Amino acid sequence: MRPSVFVFAVVLALPLQGRAAYPDRPITMIVPFAAGGPTDVVARIVGESMSRTLGQQIVVENVAGAGGTTGVTRAAQATADGYTIVMGHMGTHGAAPAVYPDLKYDPAKSFAPIGMAAGTPILVVAKKSFPAKDFKEFVAYVKANSEKLNEAHAGVGSVSFTTCALFNSLVGAKPTRVVYRGTGPALNDLVSGQVDYMCDQIVNLVPQIQAGSIRAYAIALPQRSSALPDVPTTKEGGLPEYQVSAWNALFAPKGTPPDVLKKLSGALTKALADEGTRKRLLDLGADLSDKAAQTPEGLAKLVDSEVARWNKVLKTVAMKEPAQPPK
Amino acid sequence: MSELLGHLSLGFSVAFTLSNLGLCFVGCLVGTLIGVLPGIGPIATITMLLPVTFGLPPIGALIMLAGIYYGAQYGGSTTAILVNIPGEVTSVVTTIDGHQMARQGRAGAALGIAAIGSFFAGTVATLTIAALAVPLTKVALLFGPAEYASLMTAGLAFAVVLARGSIAKSIAMVFLGLLLSTVGQDLETGADRMSFGVSSLSDGFDFAVLAMGLFGFAEVMRNLTVEQARDVVHARIGRLLPTGAEFRQSAGPIARGTLLGAILGILPGNGAVLGPFASYALEKKIGRDPKRFGRGAIEGVAGPEAANNAGAQTSFIPLLTLGIPPNAVMALMVGAMTIHGIVPGPLVMTRNASLFWGVIASMWLGNLMLLVINLPLIGLWVRLLKVPYRLLYPAIVIVCCVGIYSVNNSPGDVALTAVVALLGYAASRLGFESAPLLLGFVLGRLLEENLRRALAISRGDLSIFVHRPVSAWLLFTGLVVLVVAVLPSIRSRREEVFVE
To answer: Which residues 61-80 of A are in CB contact (within 8 Å) with B?
Structure first.
């Protein structure tokens, strides 16, 4: 039985009991990506801690499809009672309006923000035989030879697609963008040297970097990550404009009662202050430094600025680039 | 060698605890059950059970999830043999001869040889992983987009060999399958293709929809139209185990299937799906009497089943040695490991040696358990065939509907299956077979993606496929298969012409 069916059954079992104290039944957390992905892992770790605070199970339901927008659309249309929340991320609540013209929700207007859970830093990585010894050389090489280079990404609208579009536009590079179905296959071809470079979330890359099967050139954060202390920041490498994080944040449908939102946001804050939860997230390379965005107000600001930024990057540069040079 | 023994004894010492043995058993049992039920695949099950594993230690969780995966691979063949419905992509081939055997009252032999062949293949594959996982990883890295495109092209040639009847018709079905695989979102641009605005089509056809429609529903309709066929299956039950002669016939196919499946399973780009097809094609080609195939040849069950299970095991190699998941189920495994705080990668083998070798040892134990679970079940399954058709058919239809619905929780998928079933029924009345269509469908998406990737990397230069040696060899193999398969039929056609 799927979690949704279970929740539905519980709903039927409790018809109109009047408003008991929230929450009096399990809460569904929609994760708009497949189980096991970076967002799913963050959602499950945070959800487990929040369940303890709220005294009700948080059931993760994976609703994947269309770059996460399928699941987020479902959340936007759910009853705004606090029993359906969604783990949105930089793609679904930042880049999506630029990538999907027929989007059925508005990242800002259809949701009440709860707070940011964790950011996952973005790394610029290349095949191990890439002819550059540091990030400066890498940028210079990409600039000079971009037409000969192949950059791998995990599909239109994915984190690797959008963050590398930003990198390419900042550097002024026009590589051939080779598309894969997910990060795994893309990484496989980077390890074997079929493609030259990619940008992706740190969670996916750490083991390969530590084993030396790919090279990490820079991390797009203001300070180095404790998971990879040897990898310099983009600022150190001379490209301070390249600051990007695949943030994951909790949202409730617009119209969720304020007292419910307050409880949810309090539970999230408590989860992020909990030593055990923090350690599990930090071990994965997650970034918990953006304290401002952990509040509903801060998250609302972040969504506005991200939508504006990706709209600019993706509409002006990346989407106009043909995926393959016409021959 | 002593190092290998040391590793294996470490592995067995980890796997041989009461709780790990129990988890392995539970995984295999659940896997077998969901494999038997059409539609509900390992992905959905592992997703559902993921939260259950949170309370377990990582090694136990992984052992259980792995058990579900290869248990499902095995369970799928039971449905394929008994009621002609392939539960998994890899059991499509088993329907061809397996179900014919069931109709002849040899369901027990078919199920038995599938279990024994799978066990043998699993044992060999586990040993291969233990001894050669690291060097074999290099093979996986030899394969880039160009090689995959060529591999899939060569794979399409198997369709010709799969054909029971007309070769032209089976080629037509392969192309129909290829066309169906292009429905849905374009990976490169994100644009919808041929979905006609139907939102449930924008992610493409689901394998379950096609398999249930073409095999499950269409099979029921077919049987209802043929009066005398109704009593064929449950007339005789026959032996529950293969005869000595059948064992001797199956030994070669099992060995060859194991080898083929193990090799294809290593490839991270879902090469494992080709294993059973390749094995069937090989057995039919080298068989003394190819005409027996498609009419209940036990070799046509033994080889592909061995290939299937060997591939299921060796597909763990890229995951365990590289940390790169070769398919959707393995991607879930990565997630499961990550949630437990172990990020899979090239270093897992040294840093988490007991986990690594424990999982490998549990694979062999799991195979043993599958044998123990399944051999006694054969009697039960075979008795299922005795159920009168007026009860069995509605049950098949209901189980199929529930299975399809559970894939995406979508009623639209069930309706779509009904449409596919009508087409499948019409096709089978006209003498077109469904297995080549499914082969084309499964390979189509992989072929298209890799072809476009290869051409993007080569900037549109087609010579990339012949300049890269592995790719050139694969294309050449495909060509040889095609020529060898088609020549006799051209010759016989000419003979027929001369006779007239």
So the answer is: 62, 65-67
CB contact under 8 A, B335 and A41: yes
CA distance B171 to chain A (A): 28
Cβ–Cβ below 8 Å for B456 and A207: no
The three state secondary structure string of chain B is: CHHHHHHHHHHHHHHCCHHHHHHHHHHHHHHHHHHHCCCCCHHHHHHHHCHHHHHCCHHHHHHHHHHHHHHHHHHHHHHHHHHCCCCCHHHHHHHHHHHHHHHCCCHHHHHHHHHHHHHHHHHHHHHHHHHHHHHHHHHHHHCCHHHHHHHHHHHHHHHHHHCCCCHHHHHHHHHHHHHHHCCEECCCCCCEECCCCCHHHCCCCCHHHHHHHHHHHHHHHHHHHCCHHHHHHHHCCCCCCCCHHHHHHHHHHHHHHHHHHHHHHHCCCCHHHHHHHHHHHHHHHHCCCHHHCCCCCCHHHHHHHHHHHHHHHHCHHHHHHHCCCCCHHHHHHHHHHHHCCCCCCCCHHHHCHHHHHHHHHHHHHHHHHHHHHHHHHHHHHHHHCCCCHHHHHHHHHHHHHHHHHHHHCCHHHHHHHHHHHHHHHHHHHCCCCHHHHHHHHHHHHHHHHHHHHHHHHCCCCCCHHHHCHHHHHHHHHHHHHHHHHHHHHHHHHHHHHHHC
In CATH, A3-15+22-119+246-313 is 3.40.190.150: yes
Touching B: A residues 133-162, CB under 8 Å: 150, 155-157
Task: Give pLDDT tens digits for B92-103.
Answer: 899 989 988 988
Question: Per-residue pLDDT tens for B181-215?
Answer: 999 888 887 778 888 877 777 778 888 888 888 88
Percentage of chain A surpassing pLDDT 70?
Answer: 90
**Distance from B412 to chain A by nearest Cα, in Å?**
16
Is the ipTM beyond the 0.85 threshold?
no
pLDDT for residue A15? 43
pTM: 0.83
B145 vs A189: CB contact, 8 Å cut-off?
A: yes
Contacts of B333 in chain A (CB under 8 A): 36
CATH architecture of A121-244: 3-Layer(aba) Sandwich (3.40)
Q: What is the residue-averaged pLDDT of chain A?
A: 87
